[in-house]
Design a protein that fits this description.
The chain is built from no helices and eleven strands. Strands 2, 4, 5, 6, 9, 10 and 11 form a seven-stranded mixed beta sheet that branches. The protein starts with a strand and ends with a strand.
């Protein structure tokens, strides 16, 4: 059974930075696509970023492009999300997810991912 645990969330002022981590256990996910999603209060879960197993392919939501960077360290079975220039509208619970061994065409769809973490709260104050 795969378990994903997010960490690194917290309260930060607008313009600040945070680095989220997603540690996997149970089995290696070094061959799986992975992604970050977020859900703000009263809103649906939305795609943030995705990364292929090698890290060679990444995609971002338009709202975070140029500010967030997704990366992974397969030796540590861990994925990261570096978030810079944070805005109040980035406030949400951030979830990491593990998907198939191929990079899905619909990488932005939550339905492509089989395993999910419990989420970590990110709050950006103005």
């Amino acid at each position: 059974q795969v378990q994903l645990v997010e960490s690194g969330g917290g309260l930060v002022q607008a313009g600040g930075s945070l680095r989220l981590s997603c540690a996997a256990s149970g089995r290696t996910l070094s061959r799986n696509a992975m992604g970050w999603f977020r859900q703000a209060p009263g809103k649906e879960r939305e795609f943030v970023a995705a990364i292929s197993y090698s890290g060679g392919t990444t995609n971002y939501a338009d709202s975070v492009k140029g500010r967030f960077t997704i990366s992974r360290d397969n030796a540590k079975n861990t994925m990261y999300l570096q978030m810079n220039s944070l805005k109040p509208e980035d406030t949400a619970v951030y979830f990491c997810a593990a998907g198939p061994v191929f990079y899905p065409t619909r990488y932005y769809s939550a339905g492509e991912y089989n395993y999910w973490g419990q989420g970590t709260q990110v709050t950006v104050s103005s």
